[in-house]
Amino acid sequence: MTSALNSESENSVMGMTGGKKIPADGTGVIKLDPWLEPFKDALRSRYSHAQKWIKTLDETEGGLEKFSKGTEKFGFVVHDNGDITYREWAPNALRAYLIGDFNEWNRDATPMTRGEYGRWEVTLSPKDGQLAIPHGSKVKISLVIPTSHERLERVPAWITRVTQDLNFSPIYDGVFWHPPQNERYAFKHPRPPKPKSVRIYEAHVGISSPELRITTYKEFTKNVLPRIKHLGYNVIQLMAIMEHAYYASFGYQINSLFAASSRFGTPEDLKELIDTAHGMGITVLLDMVHSHASKNTGDGLNQFDGTDHLYFHEGVKGVHEQWDSRVYNYGHHEVLRFLLSNLRFWIEEYQFDGFRFDGVTSMLYTHHGIGSGFSGGYHEYFGPNVDEDGVVYLMLANEMLHNLYPDCITIAEDVSGMPALCVALSLGGIGFDYRLAMAIPDLYIKWLKEKEDADWDMGALTHTLVNRRHGEKTVAYAESHDQALVGDKSLLMWLCDKEIYTNMAVLSVFTPVIERGLSLHKMIRLITHGLGGEGYLNFEGNEFGHPEWLDFPRDGNDNSYWYARRQFNLPDDDMLRYKFLNEFDRSMQWTEDKYGWLHSDEAYVSLKNEQDKVIVFERAGLLWIFNFHPTESFADYRVGIQAAGTYQIILDTDDPAFGGFGRNAKGTRFFTTPFQWNGRKNFIQVYIPVRTAIVLALESTL
C-alpha cells in the first residue's frame, strides 16, 4: 500500500512534500527508506539537475508545457490558411531540400532555409486551393553534408506515417498524413477514470488472430476488445505500436517514434481501437520505447545529418551492444524536446492513457544493465555507473505527464530494483506510478525447469511474491511475453510438455500430467494475483495457457506465421480444456473487481508450512489458502483468521467450471472459532485437496 507520505506529496520536483519538516531538496525519500541516508548527495544532485532543467525551459522555451509541444513546430505543420511548414533539426547539414511525390522527387526544387541551432524549414503555399503536398504522398528530406558534399536522403524525424513495401524494399517511406476532415476519426467516448486496481492485458495487435497473417487494428477492435472486457481486465497495454524496422523485433527496434505501425492499418484505425476500448471502460497504455532506437540510417534517426551524435551519444557511448541499437543523449536540449513531445503526441493525438516505459534499466545506468547482476546493494544504484541524464529525463517525463494529465499511468520496466522509482518527485523519487515485479516469473520458470514439486520452498515463494519496496506500487505477473518467445516456453508448456498436443481434449484421458498442469497453472496465477503486488499483468493468450512459443516470421523459419498468432479458437472450443483456464482467469479478474485486493493493504501471511506445502494469507478481508503439496490432501485443516464470522468460498481452483473435481461443495459455510491460531484471533477448519487453492469471504460480502 502506498505510504501516506508518498501519496500526499506532489509528483513534481517543484511541488510540496507531504510532511512539514521534510526538506525540499530530493532527500525526502529517506523518510521512507533510511538506508538511502548515505546517498543523500546523489539524491540532491539529480533533484537539483531536474529543477535546473525546468528553470532553463521556463527561461528559454516558456516552460515545460510549451517545450513539450514540439509537434507544433517540427515536422509537417498544416496552418489554417493551407500553408504547410516543414521544420527539421539537422545542424551538420550544409544544405537541405524537401523532396517527394509533390515535386517529382526533384532534389533541388524545394530548398529549405537554415535557422538558428541548425533548424531547417520551408513553407509551401496551397496550389489551386489544394494543399501543396497531397495527403498520402511520399516525402523525404535531402541533406548535403560537409567535406564530401554527399547527399543523404532521410525519412523526416517527426513524421507521423511511414509505410513499408517488402516486395520492393525493407526501407520505410515517409508519408505526409493529413486526411480530409470527413476521413478523420472523431473520438466519441471520454477517457475512463483512473482505475484503483490495474488488471492489465498486454497485447500485440499483429498476433491477435489464429490466422497465419498479421492482424489489423480493426480486427483487434472487433474481435479482441470484447474478449478482454469479458475477461474482466480494465487496462490494455499495447505493444509494437511505435513503428519498428523489423517485425520480429517484437516492436523494440523503433525507427519512427511518432508513427503508428502501418502493418496493422491506418492511424484512424488505431484511434478507433482506443476510443472503442474507452467506451468499454478500459484504460489503454502504450509500450513506450525511449530506451534505445534502431540503428537504421535509411529510415531511422541514426546518422540523420551525417553525424553519429545528433540524437544519440557520440561513439561507443551511443551504442547499445546487447541490443545492437543506438542510445539517446538524454542531456541534450533538442533530444529532450523530441522525446517529451513524443509522449504528449501519443496522449493527445491517439488518446492513450499512459505508458509502460520499456528498458528503464538501460536508461538508468551507463552500463545499461549489461553484465550487472544487481545484488541489491544500494551502492549499485548510485555513483559513476548511474546515468544521471537518463534518470533526470525520466523525472522530467513523469513531471510533465502527471501535471498535464493527472490520471495518466506510468509503469517502469526495471530489473535493477532502483530505489524510489515509484516515489513522488517532490520527495526525490523518479515519479512512476508502478514498477514491474520481474523476479516473479523468473522464479516460476526456474523452479519448473530445475525443481521437483516436492522441493518447492513455500518460504522462498512467499518471499519472492512480497519482496517489493514498501510504498512503491508493483505490477505482478506470472509469466512475461519474453518467456513466450522462441527458445523458451509458456508456463503451461513447461507444465504439460508434449501432452499439451494429445490430452487437452475433454474426451481424452485426464492424465496426471494434465491434471498437474491445469492445477498449478491456476494456483500460480492466483497466488501471484493475490500476493504479488498492487497491479496484475497477463500477456495475451497466457490466460488460457496458450500452447507453444512465439516466433515472428523471419529468415530462420522461412518467414512463417505459424507461431506468430494467438489461437483464440482454443478456449472457445467447448471440447478443449483450455476453456477451463480461460474461465478461471475471468473469475479471478471479476472477483478482484468486486473485492479490490490490488488496491488494498499488503497481505498478512499467517502460514508458510514447508512440510504440508501450505500457504495462508489474508488480504482485502479475504482468506487465501493454497495447498501446493503434490500428493497430500488435508481434511479439517486449521487456519488462522483475524475477523470472526461466517465464511464461504468465492474462488476455488478445484471448481468443475475450471476443470477441477469439485471436492468442496458450493455454498459450504465455514464458522470461525474464537481461539488464537497462527497469530490470528480466530481459526476455521477447511478441506484443501491436493494442488488446489480456495479464497473465502465473509458471507455478508457475497
Automatic annotation (TrEMBL):
Domain of life: Eukaryota
GO terms of molecular function: 1,4-alpha-glucan branching enzyme activity; cation binding; hydrolase activity, hydrolyzing O-glycosyl compounds
Catalyzed reactions per annotation: Transfers a segment of a (1->4)-alpha-D-glucan chain to a primary hydroxy group in a similar glucan chain
Active site: D358 (nucleophile), E413 (proton donor)
Record-level GO cellular component terms: cytoplasm
Polar residues composition-biased segments: 1-14
BP GO annotations: glycogen biosynthetic process
InterPro entries per record: A-amylase/branching_C, Branching_enzy, GH, GH13_cat_dom, Glyco_hydro_13_N, Glyco_hydro_b, Ig-like_fold, Ig_E-set
Keyword vocabulary terms for this entry: Glycogen biosynthesis, Glycosyltransferase, Transferase
Domain Glycosyl hydrolase family 13 catalytic: 215-588
Metabolic or biological pathway: Glycan biosynthesis; glycogen biosynthesis
E.C. number(s) listed in UniProt: 2.4.1.18
Region Disordered, residue ranges: 1-20
Transmembrane segments: none
Reported function: Glycogen-branching enzyme participates in the glycogen biosynthetic process along with glycogenin and glycogen synthase. Generates alpha-1,6-glucosidic branches from alpha-1,4-linked glucose chains, to increase solubility of the glycogen polymer.
Family: Belongs to the glycosyl hydrolase 13 family. GlgB subfamily.
Protein name from the UniProt record: 1,4-alpha-glucan-branching enzyme
Lineage start: Eukaryota, Fungi, Dikarya, Ascomycota, Pezizomycotina
